[in-house]
């Protein structure tokens, strides 16, 4: 009986395993192996075990600065997508009385995603530029006398592009977890004299935790693993962890690039583990 | 057309192929014989003899490289003229060299810059090209084949096309200094890069690199963010401003790299750079939207800004007192090692088609040059040739390769004739020995 149960369990996970093992685990192992090799300087890997690549990556001030820049973008993006995502989901679940309308509005949130990521990012450029729409409008109203350069090719524009791209990844899981909150709990709290703010603080946020955690994992891992948005929206004025090792690959320095990639993977695993420690997603979902 | 030895080898090859695929039938023997006969008879048209065409119509060549050099319209024309299929695939510079080295069998013709040819040879992924099978080889500008022109020695800072051209033997892995019978690549398109600026906003003529780092353009300047060549643009600026003299801008020492990147960081912290750019489109965008008034720029990008009716000038940075000069680059076609038999013959046909003029004329119409101007000339109107190559005022309106009007009558091309341009190249695109270190320092500049 017990054996049967085990077998069914394995059967359930086997399709996913069949995909993950060859297409995810195996490449990771190859990268990990390459990070311990030496290079001949023009693309060849010499299979001599060395820790030098890790020493180089970990002992360089550049690595620290790159992580600092990437973490800064990640934090701000996470913060704004969380605030916007949470309130959009809250409105859809608790303020739109008609279920059908709520679903309709929810689908409306996905409309921007019918175009490509890149187009949605690039379309900010004519809006934010020196001679862009926002600056022209502000100049015309006389609020400013010099165009604001901070709007484009700065950290501001990078965060704007990320928030625009990634808020949906917060909305979806938070909407999902809020939709499962029993409305009668909220009513009972109201009857017991709780304020709107208390309800939010003591009922809704704790019960939407799993959605917040899932959304955070999406947003954080996407921003940490991206280089393109930073490159374009910062006007090349900032770099990112991934951008730096992509450039290493460009000059065929595979082992250092591999060591950087392994390091980034470990950092992300640690961050996600931290999120999962605070929120037991499994328990929340099966609640 | 084909000489006898190659004709018979191709016939043998196709006989071998057909025996491998099916039993040696009477038909395949006939075909082989016919191919031999056809090849020996030869024909006068550009392309291939008809029987040969029967043989190769199923061949597909994959030409892989950067978008400004591997152009779909050229591949389409080649397919039409040659009777076999050419597919163009575009990747950025670093993705391309990685593809050639890590997946050599997924490429037939590798589009290589000099430094990439050096690496590809080192890794043994390309085969030597027989110079005598390249029909126009004697008509190539001596810039490429001898490293000189009109007695003027072409500078060798960085990797000049001549330096990266020869191999000692067909399977050598090291470049050879001096003329031999074996080539790493067949040069197909080249140009000289400098600075683009908005004459209406700059207010004076720019002929020196140091203008790019002049404090009066604070917050209005941009530099190219492809580390390997951006650092050379920066070096040209600092040398021009008299801050440093480099031993070899194309192969800096660690100290020189440190000096250059520290100086860049200083400039960045002072708010000098509005942005850096990596793609052609970004550079056009920066200039057209008024974000910058001066930046490293490529000739066709300057033209693309002008097409939008926005004034933009390509600075002629002729060499003066041992400073300034253009940063030159050249892309050529390399043959991947796995090409044999009919496919190899087709690749030679393709390269010979490339050198026969249609492609040369096509790339000239957006401001690049052909290494064989004598054949490109045949496919250009006298007015076009006068404007693009001779530096004369345009006798009639000039259009781009797709027929869009570009320049008015009487316009003179920036930088003068192609000889003026080429003889003023002071360094060539390259990959330095200290590339890894240089990348690291360049990223320091990026995150500063």
TrEMBL record, chain A:
What keywords are assigned to this protein? Cell membrane, Membrane, Transmembrane, Transmembrane helix, Transport
Annotated source species: Labrys monachus
Q: What is this protein called?
A: Spermidine/putrescine transport system permease protein
The subcellular localization recorded is:
Cell membrane
Q: Does the keyword Transport apply?
A: yes
In what way does this protein cross or attach to the membrane? Multi-pass membrane protein
Transmembrane ranges, per UniProt, are 12-37, 75-93, 100-119, 150-175, 211-234, 254-276
Q: Which family does it belong to?
A: Belongs to the binding-protein-dependent transport system permease family. CysTW subfamily.
Specify the ABC transmembrane type-1 domain's residue ranges. Answer: 67-275
Q: Which SUPFAM superfamilies match?
A: MetI-like
Q: Per its UniProt record, what InterPro entries does this chain match?
A: MetI-like, MetI-like_sf
Q: Which Pfam families does the protein's record reference?
A: BPD_transp_1 (PF00528)
């Amino acid at each position: 009986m017990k054996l049967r149960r085990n077998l069914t369990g394995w059967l359930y996970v086997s399709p996913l395993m069949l995909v993950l093992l060859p297409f995810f685990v195996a490449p990771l192992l190859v990268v990990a192996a390459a990070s311990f090799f030496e290079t001949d300087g023009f693309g060849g890997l010499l299979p001599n075990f060395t820790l030098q690549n890790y020493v180089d990556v970990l002992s360089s001030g550049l690595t620290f600065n790159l992580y600092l820049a990437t973490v800064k973008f990640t934090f701000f993006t996470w913060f704004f997508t969380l605030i916007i995502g949470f309130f959009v989901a809250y409105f859809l679940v608790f303020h739109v009385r008609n279920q059908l309308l709520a679903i309709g509005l929810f689908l409306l949130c996905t409309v921007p995603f019918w175009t490509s990521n890149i187009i949605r990012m690039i379309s900010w450029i004519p809006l934010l530029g020196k001679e862009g729409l926002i600056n022209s409008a502000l100049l015309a109203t006389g609020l400013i006398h010099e165009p604001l350069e901070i709007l484009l090719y700065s950290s501001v524009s990078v965060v704007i592009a990320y928030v625009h791209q990634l808020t949906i990844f917060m909305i979806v899981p938070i909407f999902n977890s809020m939709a499962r909150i029993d409305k009668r709990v909220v009513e009972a709290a109201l009857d017991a004299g709780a304020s709107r703010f208390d309800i939010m603080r003591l009922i809704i946020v704790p019960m939407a935790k799993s959605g917040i955690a899932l959304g955070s994992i999406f947003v954080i891992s996407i921003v940490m693993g991206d280089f393109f948005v930073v490159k374009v929206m910062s006007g090349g004025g900032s770099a990112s962890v991934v951008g730096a090792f992509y450039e290493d690959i460009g000059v065929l320095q595979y082992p250092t690039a591999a060591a950087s990639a392994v390091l980034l993977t470990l950092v992300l695993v640690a961050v996600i583990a931290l999120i999962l420690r605070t929120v037991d997603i499994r328990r929340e979902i099966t609640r | 057309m084909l000489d006898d030895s190659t004709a018979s080898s191709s016939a043998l090859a196709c006989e071998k192929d057909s025996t491998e695929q099916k039993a040696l039938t009477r038909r395949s023997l006939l075909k082989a014989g016919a191919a031999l006969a056809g090849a020996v008879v030869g024909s006068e048209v550009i392309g291939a003899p008809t029987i040969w065409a029967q043989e190769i119509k199923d061949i597909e060549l994959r030409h892989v490289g950067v978008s400004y050099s591997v152009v779909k319209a050229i591949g389409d024309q080649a397919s039409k003229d040659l009777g076999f299929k050419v597919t163009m695939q575009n990747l950025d510079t670093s993705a391309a060299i990685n593809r050639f080295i890590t997946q050599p069998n997924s490429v037939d013709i590798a589009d290589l810059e000099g430094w990439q040819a050096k690496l590809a040879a080192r890794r043994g992924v390309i085969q030597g090209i027989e110079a005598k099978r390249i029909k126009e080889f004697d008509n190539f500008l001596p810039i490429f084949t001898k490293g000189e022109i009109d007695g003027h020695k072409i500078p060798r800072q960085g990797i000049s096309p001549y330096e990266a051209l020869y191999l000692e033997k067909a399977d050598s892995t090291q470049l050879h200094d001096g003329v031999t019978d074996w080539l790493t690549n067949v040069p197909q398109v080249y140009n000289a890069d400098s600075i683009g600026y908005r004459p209406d906003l700059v207010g004076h003529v720019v002929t020196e690199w140091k203008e790019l780092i002049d404090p009066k353009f604070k917050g209005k300047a941009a530099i190219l963010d492809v580390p390997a060549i951006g650092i050379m643009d920066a070096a040209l600026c600092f040398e021009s401003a008299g801050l440093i003299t480099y031993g070899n801008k194309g192969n800096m020492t660690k100290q020189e790299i440190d000096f250059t990147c520290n100086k860049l960081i200083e400039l960045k912290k002072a708010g000098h750079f509005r942005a850096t750019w990596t793609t052609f489109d970004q550079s056009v965008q920066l200039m057209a939207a008024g974000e910058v008034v001066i930046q490293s720029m490529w000739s066709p990008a300057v033209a693309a800004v002008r097409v939008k009716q926005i004034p933009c000038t390509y600075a002629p940075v002729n060499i003066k007192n041992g400073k300034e000069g253009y940063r030159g680059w050249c892309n050529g076609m390399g043959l991947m090692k796995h090409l044999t038999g009919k496919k190899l013959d087709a690749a030679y046909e393709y390269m010979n088609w490339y050198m026969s003029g249609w492609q040369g004329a096509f790339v000239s119409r957006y401001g690049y040059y052909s290494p064989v101007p004598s054949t490109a000339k045949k496919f250009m109107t006298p007015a076009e040739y006068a404007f693009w190559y001779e530096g004369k005022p345009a006798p009639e309106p000039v259009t781009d390769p797709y027929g869009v009007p570009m320049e008015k009558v009487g316009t003179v091309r920036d930088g003068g004739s192609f000889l003026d341009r080429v003889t003023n190249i002071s360094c060539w695109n390259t990959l330095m020995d200290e590339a890894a270190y240089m990348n690291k320092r360049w990223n320091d500049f990026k995150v500063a």
